[in-house]
Amino acid sequence: MAKKKPQPAGTPAITALTGAGVAFTTHAYEHDPAHPSYGEEAAEALGVSPEQVFKTLVADVDGALTVAVVPVSGSLDLKALAGAVGGKRAAMADPALAERTTGYVRGGISPLGQRRRLRTVLDASARGHATICVSAGRRGLEVELSPADLAALTGAVIAPVARPA
Fold it and tell me: What does pTM read for this prediction?
């Protein structure tokens, strides 16, 4: 039997993945605070397509915080997000509130291991990849896993909520 590659510890997202027993790989890179986009920086550093790296955005849908996981190559369609969870209106959440609620800092918010589990929507484009990368809970650290495992662990609805940038 092959030994499982050791994974870096230290974030609630990695703890959640380890506890769930799903296959995942971590990717660390040197974060550049001057880079204009956390997600694009991750894609460049990992040498993967921006369509395979997903950003975690927190929105307010009819008064309830909701997580949207969309490719860094696109942007979030707020109307589609609201519709995906049966809501009427959506707006981006206050960054400070998103940080307090998830327990992560902006640019490092992971859909996994959040302080308070929020309803989550994973963009349908994720199904087109065997694996996707999402934040592992801090800037400069990504986790790669199957979209099905991410959806299962977060209880995500899968819906088309991204639009091309």
Answer: 0.91
